[in-house]
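Archive transcription. Copying these from loose printouts into the bound notebook so they stop getting lost. Printout 1 of 2:
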Amino acid sequence: MRNQVQLITYVDRLGGGGLAELDALLAGPLDGVFGGVHLLPFFHPIDGADAGFDPIDHARVDPRLGDWRGVQSLANRVEVMADLIVNHVSADSPQFQDFSRRGAESPFAGLFLTLDRVFPGGATEAELLQIYRPRPGLPFTCVTLQNGERRILWTTFTGKQVDIDVTHPEGRAYLSGILKSFKTGGVGIIRLDAAGYAIKRRGTSCFMIPETYDFIAGLTREARALGIEVLVEIHSYYREQIEIARRVDRVYDFALPPLVLHALHQADAAPLKAWLAIAPRNCITVLDTHDGIGVIDVGADAATGRAGLLPPAAIDQLVETIHAKSAGQSRLATGAAASNLDLYQVNCTYYDALGRDDLAYLAARALQFFAPGVPQVYYVGLLAGTNDLGLLARTQVGRDINRHHYTPPEIAAALARPVARDLIDLIRLRNRHPAFQGELRVLNTPDHVIGLEWSHAGETARLLVDLAAGPRVELTFTEDGVEQDFDFAARCRQTATV
């Protein structure tokens, strides 16, 4: 993977078109800005029960977006990442429909996980309550198949997303087939979606158990044999993330987004600096994604009670501050206020979570770009987008508040805003400066100041953020040994007068 900033986007929500239109955008206004693009689910269909994360055909490009030739064209320009949804498949998939008609006689009967596969003879109340799920209730759906059988399906997320038995030969063959399609289509990196839930074993939480690590390791070996890198998507206790990072190519730094917000909201850099000192160096950094802003990654370990990166009171304060900064909009989209909810996420654009403060937003991005790892920027965040209350009202899906459908005129107007232009300048600096190919040093500074310095081959890049001063941001870097300044103050004065 190139050590350059990557874009995260839905194909159809950035420009209103398909793969060809996205390719043109990356060849035009965004030429040279990104080293890679994470294409959020572009499989058939993109508009199911979970915005493409419930594929009917995981190996087919939704024809409304184009075909695999369009993916290959993008791959000729930038590195392409795609989601391998390892935990489930749509109840409308031909495999499940065949199982529904034929039951045990279906060749796909082994593909789908039912309650009795894990709990033959039934489960006790204690065993059921031990299962971890990111949403309220138990992860099961009782259905009547087309052949008249009543079955209890394992459905971690929604009743339309039926969990796969990844330990069964049919489950392994299903995932292997998708990997081969990705390889042919030009995908060079896969994101293992919901991998932490893939293995279920009686008497456990069925989340990130030892067998899960073995499963991830095996799938990683298979992908690497095809020349495909692996990014694992897991929200969990921070020490688990460190352990996972030792076993895979890449892991997300999901602790970074809430820690940056805490630092900017409370003028307290200590938790962020403590994390950056130990954070995995082979991570992907994000501030915003298609999901909400997670808080579980900085919280205590639910299983053991070990302390998190932030104490419970600070996490509560963080959530309430996001609600206040967004003028209550995030409250409308979070928790019980919206469907398809996750227990550990606040739904809000990152720009709104910072009160639409351009300087604070650019400071947050600078902190992300100086953190260890390869940065990704979500398409709404690239444009410093605001909460889409209209889409939220239409769908009643909380995460849609941060999933705006941008038209070409909206993109042009957004890219003309000083905050977006300055962000792109920051991205270009992060991509080209040789210091970021070297070593990071977390500077010894007071708790209200965070200092980060990268150095390589005689060149340096240094970031100082004084959180108690509004914030005040200083970013300096050398070019052929001569120090240069990325003048945040002047840029944001310009922004205020536009």
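Printout 2 of 2:
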Amino acid sequence: MTASPTRTARWLLEQHRDRRTFRSFPPGIRPANLADAYRAQACFVDLKARDCGEPVGWKIALSNPAMQRLVGLDAPVAGRLLSGQVVAGPASTRVGAYGRLLIEFEIAVELGSDLPAPGGRCSREQAGAAVAAVRPAFELADDRSADYARLGDEAFQMVADNAWNEGAVLGMRREDWTALDLEAIAGRVFCDDVPVGGGRGGDLMGHPLDALAWLAASAASRGMTMRRGDVAILGSLVTSRFPKAGERWRFELEGFEPLLLSIEP
């Protein structure tokens, strides 16, 4: 029997509210397939929106094929951003507010026009034509201390759980983004002024706009359209990190002012 998307979503909401450690779906809750997992995600987002505000954007997870294989999928995962969880930097967050906080270091875009994907297809050029501005971003996520070695059996839970998103911190906004080489653009990450990693725009599915095009096609496959004014974060240039209280994180995306995030207890 197919699991009820609403029942799945309510179970996930309880897990987050009680800050419970990641565990397998109980009987009768597990989505049967990817389409069912996205239906559960839609219900979960609707429930979260009561406390966290309406959807204002999108995220992409598992843009790296190696990470896809780790969790038993063959494609990235899409999720939503909620208005009450998207803030401008510099910002701070509390580790105590999450089961286990993880942060990522992303390129974000703001859409200046709708980005439909008729027939589930969107090109890099179509995606770029819809972009009004580019910004650096931190993604805030909560994996609830998941055991990554066992995620291959729980891939649909990550999908239903809105790809673990708990918000985003947005940095400097550039409308003249076409002057940038988004494929070559470099990003560097520092913790307490110590460098911890770096990457380039091409690490995001070959090009950030290819990641955006994938998001548009993914949304269209589920009867949705990315809308003017939406924000999309396109994947991390650096491996996810688990921050500790007292740390100060800095993300330097080439051509932008540094973006700062403080971690509180």
